[in-house]
Give the backbone structure.
Amino acid sequence: MKMRELIPSLKKLNIQVQSISSVELKPDQIHTVFHIINEIVDHQPETDFLLREEWSRYQESFLKQRLISNWHKIRPAVYLERLSVQDAFAELAPLFAACFKEEYHEVGLDMNIFTLRAFLWNQEHLTAKMNLHRDRQAWGELIDLVDAIEQAGYGWDE
């Protein structure tokens, strides 16, 4: 797996991240990797051609909007602790898988906790660049949900 395949902005900006096995990374290391990538991408000059293709794909994706919509429906129950993070994740899992497949079908990446987090981060980054604050917040909350699943020790296949 290459970070450039997970995060298209890196490829378009000709930024290379040395490949490492995501299985070897601990959650705090994963946060550090994404923080560094965010700093690199945020300090690149803004150009329309870098985001045009990604933005178009985002706007045309029914699945991504459905995922956000479903999250908005269940998030109050999660925050009020009426719905566990594991149950929330299980409810959203089919949409996570469908969105991930839609995004990376050409590359043929397998979805795991690391690649899913990269996908969500990329959506958050894109919506931040396009000033879609409500969508950005939803993607950030979905990252938090995936992080909570990982921190709670739930296995990927549970």
Notes: The radius of gyration is 15 Å. The chain has a mean pLDDT of 79.
